[in-house]
Predict the structure.
Amino acid sequence: MSRPQPATRDRRAASAAERRHSPHATGDHHSVRAIRDRRKVPYAIIGVLFALIFIVPLLWSILRAFQPHEVILGTPGLGEMFDLTWENFSFFLSSDGTMLRPVINSIIVSLSTAALTAVVATLAGYGFSKFLFRGSRLAFSLILLSMMVPFQAILTPLYLLMNSVGLTDSLLGLVLFSTNFALPFGIFLMKNTFDTVPQALEDSAIIDGAGTVRMLVSVLRPMILPGIASSALYAFLTSWTEFLGALTFLTTERYFTLPIALLNIQVGTYGEVDFGQLVAGSVIAMIPCVILFLCLQRFYVQGLAAGAVKG
């Protein structure tokens, strides 16, 4: 079969170029783009509406947090709506430490829980995924089964156990308590993350002389980072908003976390509640969650997607 001559190829290329640059082809291209743009309009409108549903309450809470107690309880008026003050936040961030200490305690407990959960879940997930031992599937099934048990059902025996070892009324005990209930999801997520790692990559690293620690830190870290971020973020959010466990295990005021401090504001003295301080405390409790989620959103979505592929 003879090949086309160079002159024939040149004529074909010239005709194709003419078709691309012809007015009719350009008009068809613009019409297709216009149709696609019109199809995106309803999705854009729906997306904006859903965004407003979530953003407007947040903005309203932030505006209320800067308003005095009298304005919040008074008759709504446009003139007083923007009568803003910093007094509500200064109550929490003042140097006397009355409400600053609960904020610091919550940060310490949440960060410690997130770090401990990430480390233990990574090691356990790696073990369940890459090492076969007798009873591994049963042990992993029991870990998943523990996710179905509400912690309220075992709160009393857990309190007696922690009290016997002297871990009640301490931030360390609260960290271990929060880590205990964040670990099952973290282990499940990390095991599924390690399952997606190609075995050939680990075999190559072993041939090069990499041990287990170097394998995790240097070789697998870029691929398992989304799972680690997801488990750490989940642990941080659960411990940051933990109320019943903190109320049960903490009895000394200097160990109180932010949810307990907000409860004390809500209860008030002789039935009096300062709603400005209460809303400001809610905004302070909301800020770390929003910042962490925005910073780790990409890793969080990737980690959950990895956990949804294999189970």
Remarks:
- The radius of gyration is 29 Å.
- Residues 143 and 184 are 6 Å apart (CA to CA).
- The chain has 15 helices and no strands.
- The first helix runs from residue 6 to 21.
